[in-house]
Amino acid sequence: MVDLSLIIYCGLVTFFSRYLMIAILKKEMFTDRIREVLSFVPSAIFPAIIFPAIFLDNTGMFVFDSNPKIYAAAVAVLFGLITKNVIVTIFSGLTSYWLIIYMF
Amino acid sequence: MSNKSNIFVKGIVDVSPLMIPVVPFGIIFGVLAIDLGLSPATTMAMSIIIFGGASQIVFLQLFSAGASSLVILSSVGAVNSRHLLYGAVLSEHTSDLKMIWKIIISYFLVDQSFAVTNKYLKQSSDKDKVFHSFGAGVTCWMIWQTTTLIGIFLGSIIPEELGLSFAVPLTFIALLVDDLRKLLNVIVIIISGLIATFGYEIIPFKAYVIVAAVIGLLLAMILTKFKVFRNG
Questions:
Q1: Is A103 on the interface with B (CB under 8 A)?
Q2: Residues B42 and B88 in one domain
Q3: For residue B70, what are the domain limits?
C-alpha cells in the first residue's frame, strides 16, 4: 500500500528542486564548471535504475544466461543511437523482448 | 491578446512535438501503477502532486522492490537534482516576477518545457519571455494527466505476462541515448550501472540508486577535471 503522505513528500521534494534556484539563485553562483558536472546527472542516476532492472531477476539474483532483457536492451540502444527517437527506442526494445519470449 | 498570452501560446506550440513520446510514457506509468496494485485515485494523485515522469517511475520501481520510504524519497530527490540546473537558468528571467508566479512556473517546469524554453530565451528579447515556460509546462501537464488516466484504464486490461515493467529501463535508455555518444558519459554510465547491479543485495535499505549516483557524479567530477587540465 502506498502512503499518500509519501506521495506528498515526494511532491514537495520535486517542487522544491524546481523552485529552489528560481527563489534564491544569484546568477554568478553557477560557474561553467558546475554546469558541466551537473550535465552528468542523468548519466549518473539513470543507469542505476536501468542495469538492475535488466541484469537482476525479481529476487535480486544475477541473470546472465539466456536473459531476453539483455538482448532486447541492446537492440533498444542500437535503435536509439541510430534514430535518436524516444518512441522508436522504447518500442524496438519491447518488440524484440516479446519476440524473444514468445518465439523461444 | 496581450503580450504575455502570445508568449504563453508560443510555448504551447513549441513544446507540442515533444509531447509525442510523453504519450506512451504517461500510459506506461498508469499501466505499471495499476499492475503494482496502486488504486486509480493514488495513481492520479501521484501525477498531480509529483508531476514528474522520471520521479514517478523511480517511485514505482523502488516501491515494487520493497524499498523504505526514506530511500524512495531520497532517490526521488536525487533524480530531481537536474531541476536545480533548469531553475538556475530560468532564475535569470524570473527575478522580477511576484512570488506566486515563481511558484506556478516552478510547478510546471519539466524536461520538455525546459528544452524548448531554453532555446526561446536565447532568441527572444521580450521582457515577459519566461511565460513561454508556463505555456509549455501547462501543455505537458495536460498530456501527462490525460495519459495517466488512459494508462489507469488500460492497466486492468493489459496482462502482466507482457512484461510491460521492462518498459521502465527502456524509457531511461531512451532518455540517455544522446549521452551514449560521449566517452566520459559512457564511463560514468557503466560504472554507475555496475555499482547499482552488484550493490543491489549488498548496500542496505535498497539505497543502491543513490550510492551509485553519488559515486557516478564524483567520477564525473574527477574525469571532467582531468579533461580540463589536459586541454590546458
A1: no
A2: yes
A3: 3-163
At which of B136, B163, B190 does a domain end?
Answer: B163
Sign of CA dihedral A42, B77, B73, B59: negative
Per-residue pLDDT 10s for chain B (232 aa) are 578 999 999 999 988 877 877 887 899 899 989 988 899 999 999 999 999 988 998 899 889 888 889 989 988 988 887 788 788 878 888 888 899 999 999 999 998 888 888 888 878 888 889 999 999 999 999 999 999 999 999 988 887 777 777 887 888 898 888 899 999 999 999 999 999 999 988 987 667 888 898 899 999 999 998 876 555 4
In total, the C-beta contacts within 8 angstroms joining chain A to chain B are: 254
Residue type, A97: Y
Task: Indicate whether B175 belongs to any domain.
Answer: no
Smallest CA-to-CA distance from B54 within A5, A2, A90, A49 is with: A49
Can you give the pTM of this predicted structure?
A: 0.76
Asked, for residue B168, whether it belongs to a domain, the answer is no
Residue A74: give the domain boundaries: 4-103
- Strand partners for A62: A56
Give φ, ψ of A56 to 5 degrees. Answer: -110, 150
B-contacting residues in A 6-65 (Cβ below 8 Å): 6-11, 13-15, 17-23, 25, 27, 29-30, 33, 35-56, 60, 62
Cell triple for A11 = 511532491
